[in-house]
Design a protein that fits this description.
mainly alpha; 7 helices; disordered N terminus; elongated
C-alpha cells in the first residue's frame, strides 16, 4: 500500500503542480485554493464540513500549490490512507476481541470485508479519475460511502451496541464527500 501512496504523490506533483505548457481556468493559482474549495463546497451543502475539509487538505503540503484536480487526488489519497489504517485497526480489534461479544465481533468481521472492498474501490476511483472518467470515479467513491455507512449501521442493529469505528467511519465519509464535491466543481468548471 505504501508504494501506491508514493505513486499517488508522484501523480499529484507531476500532473497537477508542475506546469506542462497549457494553462486553464483551473490551473494552480496563488490564492489559497484549499480554503476557496472547502468554502464553495460548504456553501453548496449544509452537510459538508468546512473545517474537516480545510484541516484534512492542509495536512498535505503540496495541496497548497495544487489545482482542483490535485486537490481531488489529495482527498482520495487521504481516503485511501484512512481506509487502509482502518483495516489495520479492525485487525487489531479482532485479534484483541476479548472485550467484544459475538454480535460486535461479527460486526467487526463485516466491517473488515467492507473496508477491504473500500480500499480496492478507492484505488479504482483514483484510476478512473486519472483517466478523466469522473462518472466512474464519483460512482466508486459513493459506493465507498455506502460501505462505510453499512459498517456503522451494523452495530446499531443491536440496542446499546457502540461501534468502535464511528470516528474512522465518519472521517472516511467526509474525505469521500470532499473528493466528490471537488469532482462536482471540476465537471462544472470544464466545458463538455
Amino acid at each position: 500500500m505504501r508504494h501506491l501512496s508514493y505513486f499517488l504523490s508522484f501523480c499529484l506533483f507531476y500532473f497537477f503542480v508542475i506546469p506542462h505548457g497549457k494553462s486553464s481556468s483551473i490551473s494552480a493559482v496563488c490564492v489559497d485554493i484549499i480554503n476557496q474549495t472547502c468554502k464553495t463546497c460548504a456553501d453548496d451543502s449544509a452537510s459538508f464540513n468546512y473545517n474537516f475539509c480545510l484541516t484534512s487538505l492542509q495536512t498535505v503540503p503540496v495541496s497548497h500549490a495544487a489545482n482542483l484536480q490535485g486537490l481531488a487526488l489529495v482527498a482520495m489519497e487521504l481516503a485511501l490512507q484512512n481506509a487502509s489504517n482502518t483495516v489495520s485497526s479492525i485487525k487489531e480489534l479482532l485479534i484483541n476481541a476479548t472485550s467484544f461479544d459475538s454480535f460486535a465481533f461479527a460486526c467487526l468481521e463485516d466491517c473488515m470485508e467492507l473496508y477491504l472492498g473500500a480500499v480496492l474501490t478507492i484505488v479504482d476511483s483514483v484510476g478512473a479519475f486519472l483517466s478523466e472518467n469522473y462518472i466512474n470515479a464519483k460512482l466508486w467513491l459513493s459506493l465507498v460511502m455506502e460501505a462505510v455507512t453499512t459498517c456503522e449501521e451494523g452495530f446499531a442493529e443491536k440496542k446499546g451496541e457502540v461501534s468502535p469505528l464511528t470516528k474512522k467511519n465518519h472521517d472516511l465519509i467526509q474525505l469521500c464527500n470532499t473528493a466528490l464535491c471537488i469532482f462536482h466543481l471540476l465537471t462544472h468548471a470544464i466545458p463538455s
